[in-house]
C-alpha cells in the first residue's frame, strides 16, 4: 500500500532551483556527468555519490551556521 506522505515533496518549494543547481555542482565535483532532463541511466553508485556529498556539504554548512 502506498504511503500518503510523499518524501519527495519539497519542504521549501522556493529552494528547488537552488538545490538543482547544487546537485549539478556536486556532480561535477565528484566527476559524474549529469545531463539536462532524464538521468535514469545513472548508476546507483554515482547517484549515491552525488546525494551523499550533497548531504555532507549541507550538514557542514548547518554546523558552520551554529558556531
List keywords for this structure.
single chain, 67 residues, mainly alpha, 2 helices, globular
How does this model look, in words?
By secondary structure, the protein is an all-alpha fold. The protein has a domain at 13-32 and 42-65. The protein has two helices and no strands. It has helices spanning 16-29, 44-65. α1 (16-29) crosses α2 (44-65). The N and C termini lie far apart (44 Å).
Number of strands: 0
The biggest sheet amounts to:
none
Helical percentage: 40-55%
* Structural class by secondary-structure content: mainly alpha
Shape: globular
| Share in β-strands | under 5%
- C-alpha end-to-end distance: 44 Å
- N-to-C SSE string, H for helix and E for strand: HH
Mean residue pLDDT: 90
Report the oligomer: single chain
Number of separate helices: 2
Low-confidence stretches: none
C-alpha Rg (nearest Å): 14 Å
Write the layout of secondary structure elements.
Blueprint: H1 16-29, H2 44-65
Amino acid at each position: 500500500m502506498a504511503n500518503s506522505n510523499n518524501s519527495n515533496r519539497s519542504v521549501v518549494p522556493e529552494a528547488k532551483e537552488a538545490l538543482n543547481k547544487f546537485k549539478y555542482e556536486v556532480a561535477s565535483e565528484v566527476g559524474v556527468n549529469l545531463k539536462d532532463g532524464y538521468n535514469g541511466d545513472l548508476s546507483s553508485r554515482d547517484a549515491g555519490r552525488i546525494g551523499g556529498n550533497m548531504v555532507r556539504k549541507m550538514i557542514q554548512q548547518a554546523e558552520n551556521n551554529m558556531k
